[in-house]
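User: Fold both of these, please.

Assistant: Here is the first one.
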Amino acid sequence: MLGAWLLLGGALALGCRAQAAAQRRADDGSGRCTYSFTVASPVEATCSDGGGVSELRAELAALAARLSRLESRERGTGGSGPRGAEAGGGRDPQRAAPAARLEAAYSELLRAKSRLEEEKGRLEREKEELGRRLESSAQEITRLRAARCPPGAEGPGRDTLRGPGKAPRWDPQPLAYQELQSERTEVPASRLLEETALGRPGSQDSGCGELVWVGEPIIFGRADSIAGKYGVWMKDPEPVPPFTRETTWRVDAVGTEVRQLFQYEAAEQLARGYPAKVHILPQPLESTGAVIYRGGLFFQPRRSHTVARYDLRGEAVTAQREIPGAGYHGQYPYSWGGYTDIDLAVDETGLWVIYSTEKARGAIVLSKLDPETLEIQQTWETNIRKRGVANSFVICGTLYTVSSYSAPNATINFAYNTATSTSRALSIPFENRFRYLSMVDYNPTERQLFAWDSFNMVTYPIRLSQA
């Protein structure tokens, strides 16, 4: 533009200097300003000679310098002419306010985006850390399972957690799982036996007779730790003071050092989980074969083929005797395992021990014991394979066996009568409600079966025919 003004200056220099000139500024529509001069039409004759040309050139140079400064100022503000003025300090305030708000909102969005990206990074780091912890926990659980219950091994550990609101209990001995090596014999449930007047539920029984019916299980309590997966609970059919027929006893049988015998004033107290006393046995017992009879706990000491009597009043072992040839610690258990080689039982006639020997080739051997001295009074060898049944009990001198510890609809499948030394097959329905029957005993006073079924302590009502 400056060059154009110089050309214009040269033309004016040729024109008449004396004529007055008018200057005009306009917008060319592209953001640039144009300046123009108008002069009266020159007449060569009236123009003066070139004496004033130098003065006019000086004015034009000053004007060109001023225009150059204006152009520099407009370029610095980002526009020319009127638009440059709008972009600068002279812009319309009504238009500037929305632009400022938009710029502020955009800046806030950028800051929010930055915060979200930081939060996303933090969450990803936490996710990775949680994944590592879960993987570590899974490995620890696998290690504990492998350490606790490998086949044939006994590892340490017991879940001692108590439910909310329960009082603290006695500190248990270190426990571990016993071996659960077993064979299963599944016997299909049969039709109910035809009920007779004496065998129908609800009828009254008197004296001894044959088992003809077993009712549905009634739950009295539930163990609250892994030590109660299987165990034994009982009442004394012939108690001695200060104990009564309501006094209830319990042993949680999972562990390598099972020494705790829990005493409850009644079954209701057992259901609430608060023992009146805990007896610590001088010897650890093995499995679920113990019974309470005439003021004594009869049990098999661990890893032995002996039977011991623990006096509940004197809190001491008063008698102990070996069972000749009896298998122990997994030689001849019931089908569910659990080191149930030696099982004790009580009926109307007294104390019994159920076991097997190498001579009997795994068949059940039944012996009658003196409850004071534990001397064997008489022995019967049956033809019932001990590993082939889940459990057994004695009623009125007859041994009865349970077909399966896990089948929901099991049966009482065999009976051996010691009076005639004969056995016969049965098919009396028997319900395993919780699918892990580890103990069954008969209480001749209450005429019920006591059982332990996967943490649950239950009873079964029964009916006997008349002899």
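And the second sequence with its predicted structure:
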Amino acid sequence: MSYRLDFLLVLLLCLGAAATTSEILNSTSSLKLTTITPQAMLPGATSWAEGGTVSQPFSSFLGSVDKHGTCQCSVSLPDTTFPADRVERLEFTAHNLSQKFEREFSKVKEYVQLISVYEKKLLNLTVRVEVMEKDSIGYTELDFELIKLEVKEMHKLVIQLKENFVGSSEIIDKLEVEIRNMTLLVEKLETLDQNNVLSIRRQILALKNKLKECEASKSELVPATPPPPAPGSCSHGGVVNISAPSVVQLNWLGFNYKYGAWGRDYSPQHPEQTLYWVAPLNTDARVLEYYRLYDSLDNLLIYSHSRDYRMRYGQGGGLVAYNNNMYVNWYNGRNIAKINLTTNVVTVNQPLPMAAYNNRFSYANVNWQDIDLAVDEQALWVIYATEASTGNIVISKLNDTSLEVLNTWVTKQYKPSVSNAFMVCGVLYATRTLNTKTEEIFYYYDTNTGREGNLAIPMRKMQERIQSINYHPFDQKLYVYNDGYLLNYDLVFSRESRQPV
């Protein structure tokens, strides 16, 4: 650098002057020397030397000879001297800035290349989206996923560019807007996707065709299955099978309310009415305090438009609804109470003669259900046990208005060994537990004929214990309360009519 050369020249001049002075002193060493007092020199003043003058460009030049005869001098540079140290720092700073600039410039070149690459990708995506807009069946869900990944990748790049790019970002802002618009367009197209729907329809159609072929081949070998009996009809030979369970929902109070009952109100005069009721017991598994009504199954499924009632005197899960009335076992006794479902008022409270109560002969694994009420196509029934029957099941038909006993049948089946029971067309069906996933309809008693016997109809369940079973004559379903869950079962009947005694 030029300023360094200037500084060196000045330094050489200074050293040269000092050397000249030393030579003069050495050459005159034979002369008699006298002590020279140092003098402060003004700018342009003459230095001490033997009669000679040396012009010095320095603001201060001091000289002296020590006791050994050595010449000593000191030079003070003026403030106007060139600032070499600051220039050197400036040069170092400039070098660092140059290196940073090179690094940033290489990044910019890399970003420019990436922008050009993603600009081509964006153009390609635009073409693909236009094709997808025109063709509703030429793409799949995978196409959407790939496009969303590419758009997401470009969006990340734009965000990175905005964070690191210094200067005008108008181009990057435009790119970001375009990518955002592309994202919205892809999402909109995805909501309008018809390809998966069409694919599923094709699969369903193929399955239907296979099913028809299977039915056609089967019909050649096996006679056609007879249609089920008409709703509310008893023109069949009794229950011979049961469907897999259909889980409707968890009871409205939650999982902790494992005991209770649910069903559909049955009215012989208006069998098509759809009034559903759900009655979880309190967590003590004994007190029936609250129940809820729904005007349709849809409302029950979404917990909508319900009516909640409180009674505070029911006991156990053996309740049932019949002709817009609910029938329950009165708390801590053998009485049966009739409650109007419109007003929630008890209209009848009648004792059941000789009935055992308070866990004397309740069902297996279920307490407080000594008195179990049931409904079928013919009447209102009560299933219980007495001391006289030594715990065997007793069936009584009740007058639904006065709750008087009309007729009674005593079976040979011990009630505490039964997990639950229900009535269909005057026939009692009892269940028992096989394991944690299966019950079995194992016993029947026909009040029409006086016959009883054993069955072996497996009944799957969702949870370990079944707390109550209610039959509805019109839809011919079982309504089962299974550890807090509401289940549905379809019954399958024999085509042979029951033979009278």
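The longest helix spans residues 84-134.
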